[in-house]
Amino acid sequence: MKLKILVEADENGQLYIHFVRDDLFGTPATRTEEVYAGVYFDFDAEGRLVGIDITDLPALLGIDRADPVTFDRLIGVKEAAELLGVAKPNFLRDFASKPDFPAPAAELASGRIWYLSDVLDFIRRNRAAPPEGSLGDLVAQYVKLKGPERVAQELQTEVATVEYLAHDHRLADRVREADLTRLYGLSTEAAGHLLRQIRLIKKLKEPPGGGSDEAGRRDGEAQDPRDPTGQT
């Protein structure tokens, strides 16, 4: 069993913390208890904690509501190299050591760490978009259409992971549900949901009379090996 802790926030100061188990994808809350003024615990039918709702975070922290609050996460050399599609030694030589690459958030005994948002901003500025029609292109379109916050909620993951998905060069290649689970920590259900959604986008973009993958398989046609979404 793997537990993920996801955080959502809005501009009104409301914060929600999800506790997501991979064997209980999308488990709904059936009972809520107020444990402190403006702080609520959500439980499922079995009495397990599934979320914490803070209705006014600035008030609880005693900070000005106008102060900006951002949510990010830290990544190390391995994750940064994977985002850029290079080996760790190449990342350290060709990116981390260059003056235009973001400065690390900290330098620990175990190595340097960066804010994920800084690395993603660097990729957006310096990397071409994924090839048109590739899985990466379709994911980026899906995120642009629905918004990263909503996609993160659907996939029960962090907004940072959704941004990661929309920019990772590996999605230019053929990817299966198992790959999405392994690379991004998505549950099997979330990975399947994502692939179904981007297949729908792909189908909507097909020219009239172009047919669909499903129709082609019914007619006995071979699956195009270049189709990045035809295999799950």
What does this structure look like?
This protein has 232 residues and is of the alpha+beta class. 41% of the residues lie in helices and 18% in strands. It is built from ten helices and eight strands. A hairpin with a 2-residue loop joins strand 3 and strand 4. Helix 5 crosses helix 6 and helix 8 crosses helix 9. The C terminus is likely disordered.
Terminal Cα separation, in Å?
A: 22 Å
How much strand? 15-25%
CA-atom Rg in angstroms = 20 Å
Main sheet characteristics: 5 strands, antiparallel
| Elements, N to C (H/E) | EEEEEHEHHEEHHHHHHH
Average residue-wise pLDDT:
76
Report a brief summary of the structure.
With about 230 residues, the protein is an alpha+beta fold. Helix content is about 40%, strand content about 20%. The chain is globular.
List strands and helices in order, with pairings.
Elements: E1 3-9, E2 15-21, E3 31-36, E4 39-43, E5 49-54, H1 57-61, E6 74-75, H2 77-84, H3 88-96, E7 106-108, E8 111-115, H4 116-126, H5 135-146, H6 148-155, H7 159-167, H8 177-184, H9 188-205, H10 213-218
Antiparallel strand pairs: 1-2, 2-5, 3-4, 4-5, 6-8, 7-8
Helix pairs in contact: 2-3, 4-7, 5-6, 5-7, 5-9, 6-7, 8-9
